[in-house]
Amino acid sequence: MKALVYDGIETLGFRDVADTAPRDGEHLIRVEASGICGSDMHAYLGHDARRPAPLILGHEAAGTIIGGARDGMRVTINPLVTCDTCAACTSGRENLCAERQIISMPPREGAFAQFVAMPERNLVEVPADVPFGKAALAEPLAVSWHAARLALDALHPAMERRALVLGGGSIGLAAALALQAMGVEDVTIAEPNDARCAFLESRCDQTALATATGQFPLVIDAVGYAATRKTASELAQPGGVIAHVGLGEDAGGLDIRRMTLQEITFIGTYTYTAQDFRDTAQAIFDGRLGPLDWTETRPLSDGAAAFKDLREGRVAAPKIVLTPWA
């Protein structure tokens, strides 16, 4: 099969690789759409030791089951494979499973390929009227759905339901959409890239600013750099909540003294539960997250150029989706 392979820092190759072989209990899926995630970019830049070269990246995918009793079923893929038996899994917190694996990290190759294999419990059926490119957004949207849900659960009921999202990429935009679907009407996205900021305003009907000012009861950091954590610390209202979902860099930025003196709650959020993923997929199918027409589609064979364009800030759209069969 053809795949886009991460071969080293800022180096990707599109070539033939060994065919995917499903394990027991897994389905073979013909990948129809696979989005580029910020974590794929971190690996591409050599910033993620969990993703050593050579490796097939990609974990935001949708496609069609090939063979078996469910041959032809259209599915979106929850890429988080867990043990299903530990206390975390049985209590509905599968994202904290100590044995968790995710495609695009060893030992599981990713979905920037023509085929991928997944357990049946990781698949959600996609209605015939939902395009694969939209269905592939279930994964990044679920990340933000999970973060928004935890943040709102932590927000004191007396506080105003008003939010700032730092970062206007797919996770930031998805966080804004999730908050709005959960009843938060006043959401601002801070995005320093002028082209993306304009895109968010014109195409996504969002309030987007290059720099946010004031204070907010709820702040979601969808970037995760020291600079954005510093901003979150400054702009979180006393008694408010910071939900941290970005993984840009691992240290610096938080004003621990202010967070302590002002009783600001900080929540680290990672991926999503299986229920979050199903809820997000259903919200996509029901149209509760909007038209989701803000992606750019390119062939997988042009994936290296797509990564380079993202690296150099030449992409206004919050998400590039790659199609392996174009």
Automatic annotation (TrEMBL):
<dbReference type="InterPro" id="IPR013154">
    <property type="entry name" value="ADH-like_N"/>
</dbReference>
<feature type="domain" description="Alcohol dehydrogenase-like C-terminal">
    <location>
        <begin position="171"/>
        <end position="283"/>
    </location>
</feature>
<keyword id="KW-0560">Oxidoreductase</keyword>
<dbReference type="Pfam" id="PF00107">
    <property type="entry name" value="ADH_zinc_N"/>
</dbReference>
<dbReference type="GO" id="GO:0005737">
    <property type="term" value="C:cytoplasm"/>
</dbReference>
<dbReference type="InterPro" id="IPR036291">
    <property type="entry name" value="NAD(P)-bd_dom_sf"/>
</dbReference>
<keyword id="KW-0862">Zinc</keyword>
<protein>
    <submittedName>
        <fullName>Threonine dehydrogenase-like Zn-dependent dehydrogenase</fullName>
    </submittedName>
</protein>
<dbReference type="InterPro" id="IPR011032">
    <property type="entry name" value="GroES-like_sf"/>
</dbReference>
<dbReference type="Pfam" id="PF08240">
    <property type="entry name" value="ADH_N"/>
</dbReference>
<keyword id="KW-0479">Metal-binding</keyword>
<comment type="similarity">
    <text>Belongs to the zinc-containing alcohol dehydrogenase family.</text>
</comment>
<feature type="domain" description="Alcohol dehydrogenase-like N-terminal">
    <location>
        <begin position="24"/>
        <end position="127"/>
    </location>
</feature>
<dbReference type="GO" id="GO:0046872">
    <property type="term" value="F:metal ion binding"/>
</dbReference>
<dbReference type="GO" id="GO:0034079">
    <property type="term" value="P:butanediol biosynthetic process"/>
</dbReference>
<dbReference type="InterPro" id="IPR013149">
    <property type="entry name" value="ADH-like_C"/>
</dbReference>
<dbReference type="GO" id="GO:0000721">
    <property type="term" value="F:(R,R)-butanediol dehydrogenase activity"/>
</dbReference>
